[in-house]
Amino acid sequence: MKGFIFTRFNPSDNSGPSFEKLLDVFTQLLTYTSGDVSEALQWLTELDKEYQLTSEEYGIGDLIQDLKDKGYLRDNEAEGTISITAKTEQTIRKRALEEIFGKLKKSRIGDHNIRKSGQGDEQNAETRPYAFGDALEQIDITASIRNAQINHGIDVFSMQQDDLEIRETDFKTQTSTALMIDISHSMILYGEDRITPAKKVAMALSELITTRYPKDTLDIIVFGNDAWQIEIKDLPYLQVGPFHTNTVAGLELAMDILRRRRNPNKQIFMITDGKPTCLKQGKQYYKNSFGLDRKILNRTLNLAAQCKKLKIPITTFMVATDPWLQQFVNEFTETNNGKAFFSGTDHLGQFLFHDFENGKRKKL
Asked: Which CATH superfamily is domain 174-362 in?
């Protein structure tokens, strides 16, 4: 008989350091340092001095050796440096997902439920007679054999088309998402780190889609003076540059990518902290950081309208709460018939994931 044994709680039993606890702190620091192992270890050493994270039995040196032995770090002998591995990159994404959205079980199928039956991956309790064009794998063999025995007797087995019964499946939508991340200089300006929460959300979203919605697609775009696509594995190393905000370039690239996706449902998530301040005209850049420039604004709004015609909604997550920015965001959102959230850095993940999950349930 299985049961539980209760003993007196001894705080000293849980006070010592452990690899998992230190790994959690280390991965958090890697996100802040954009994957710089040396800087992360320096921060970890300083935190250890102040908060006694390690002990005489297990120190930072032991942690570094364990990280190497377990495949989280590798030595670059030619350069004399240490770098993180693909295992660490996946661990950072997984922990970001757990931090923002809780632990999720891995699924082999897309799981955006809607209130409609049709071709899909998961069977439900409803059945119906066979109709021309139904897939063979949808036939309920047990029910069809039972119908044949009832209709024709059990002495000589015979099955006709009228005996076939189809098991209905729940239709599940597939979505292509383009996630745009602002990496202009303002994302770390004024003493507020806005890029780290944006990176965490992007890593968590990528982990969510690859584990729970593997039939969905996620394309990640960063935009500053220009816009370019990055891979999921590049997210921990993402850094802000000395850039203006070329929202037009980001939207154009997102639209181009989504045009090539075959999924019928497409959407753009845009994480930014300010207004568009840059355009590229040929090889030259047109820049204006002072107020809302009508030339830049009109190009941005035109793209929002084009996305609306293509049935690509844009959800803007403004990680800044400046009142004067709301005018641009509201006009942009109204033009696209999309949505906007003025979330700040603390609740960015909750807003984005809530919108992602709920939005999929509404799509047809």
From this structure: von Willebrand factor, type A domain (3.40.50.410)
* Domain 14-84, classified CATH 1.25.40, yes or no: no
pLDDT tens digits for range 72-127: 999 998 888 899 999 999 999 988 888 876 644 444 444 444 444 444 444 555 67
Domain boundaries, the chain: 14-84, 122-170, 174-362
Mean pLDDT of 338-360: 71
Tokens 């990055």, residue located: 230
CA-to-CA dists, residue 101 to 24, 279, 350, 353, angstroms: 16, 36, 7, 7
Q: Which amino acid is at 309?
A: K
What is the DSSP code string of 226-260?
Answer: SEEEE-GGGGGG----S----HHHHHHHHHHHHHT
Q: How many CB atoms lie within 10 A of CB 348?
A: 21
Indicate the pairing of strand 73-76 with strand 81-84.
antiparallel
Dihedral of alpha carbons 210, 213, 216, 221, sign: negative
